[in-house]
Write a structure and sequence with these properties.
alpha/beta, single chain, 347 residues, 30% helix, five-stranded parallel β-sheet
Length: 347
């Protein structure tokens, strides 16, 4: 059984030393960040990184994000950082923000999926930063989950599927944000959002930059296309039961009527609904699970993966999920739900 370290109350120096030794000896550790839990290994150790892919069942063409604790680590594996990239890092680090930088070629190819770029971020989580700093090495860490499944925002959700596949778990309690970091790439003077997150298009635009959403944010990648960010290709974030995404509209009655019409037209199925807190009473005759308030998208983002996992415990044929407005962090939530629902959209 994988060893579990409880850091919810405080970081224990003797146990942090043990975790450092696991990382430095080529082991794999599940640890919390402010976004989701990561499954990490020494980014400079090819064999250690390979263990991440094995534990997750992750496709080899899906690049990993490298986590750092200080700017000096960038010098080890990146080059030719532009002024725009420096400005973005200064503004959004530490935080839920990943930037695609030029690689200097020193990292193993399984980290970068053979590309000449690498995604890097500095997490805003004391446990994560302490592990990276103590290990004195950048840590490659995708989300902690079996590939294709909803990411883990607490240890309980992911322990069974990763137990014995990693050396250790570091329990830091629930993560704050609940969805993965924003990933951007600077193309000349334009900032391209490859994967939306809490740092939104609006946040970046407020700095005076030209910003756009990549065409793949709400569309799948064609066979043979290379990707520079996780979350763009392959099945992601999905529970084992069929899910359908209900497109958001400000008119509450439209959403409710669309839901009820779909359930009526599919009366041969047992259908559940992941709904807003404000809609529970209007949908009380159905199987409903509250995903949070429509007026608090941060609440929805923080618990959406746990809710997606929870529906597997009910005897329903399929679930409808109420979508949010595609603004701010809502863009990121809808990106994740669109992929979790395999592009099944109810309008």
């Amino acid at each position: 059984m994988s060893k579990v370290y409880d850091f919810k109350g405080n970081i224990k120096d003797n146990e942090l030393e043990e975790i450092k030794n696991i990382i430095n000896k080529g082991g794999v550790v599940v640890f919390p960040t402010e976004t989701v839990y990561g499954i990490g290994a020494d980014a400079k150790n090819k064999e250690a990184v390979e263990k991440i892919f094995i534990a997750k069942g992750r496709p080899q063409d899906n690049p990993l994000i490298v986590h750092i604790s200080n700017y000096d680590m960038l010098k080890e594996f990146t080059c030719n950082i532009s002024e725009i990239e420096k400005t973005l890092m200064d503004k959004f680090w530490p935080g839920p923000f990943t930037i695609i930088l030029n690689s200097n070629g020193t990292l193993p190819l399984n980290v970068t999926a053979g590309l000449n770029t690498v995604g890097v971020r500095m997490p805003d989580n004391n446990i994560a930063l302490s592990i990276i700093e103590k290990s004195n090495t950048p840590i490659a860490a995708p989300s902690a989950n079996i590939s294709g499944r909803p990411s883990g925002t607490n240890i309980n959700d992911i322990f069974d599927e990763l137990n014995n596949k990693v050396n250790a778990f570091v329990d830091g309690g629930e993560t704050n944000i609940g969805i993965e970091s924003t990933v951007v790439k600077v193309d000349k003077s334009v900032i391209n959002i490859l994967r939306p997150g809490k740092v939104s298009l609006e946040d970046i635009k407020a700095l005076g930059f030209d910003v756009k959403l990549d065409k793949h944010v709400f569309a799948d990648v064609k066979e043979g296309e290379k990707i520079e960010s996780p979350g763009m290709k392959h099945k992601h974030y999905a529970p084992s039961v069929k899910t359908i995404l209900l497109e958001y509209t400000e008119d509450e009655s439209v959403m409710i009527n669309t839901l009820k019409k779909y359930v009526k037209n599919n009366s041969d199925k047992n259908i559940g609904i992941l709904c807003f807190d404000e809609h529970k009473e209007l949908l009380k005759e159905y199987n409903v699970i509250n995903i949070g308030s429509v007026n608090n998208v941060l609440e929805i983002s923080s618990n959406i993966y746990t809710k997606l996992r929870s529906i597997e415990n009910f005897d329903c044929d399929e679930w409808i999920i109420e979508g949010v407005s595609r603004t701010g962090i809502g863009t990121a939530i809808m990106n994740r739900l669109t992929r979790a629902c395999s592009y099944n959209i109810l309008k």
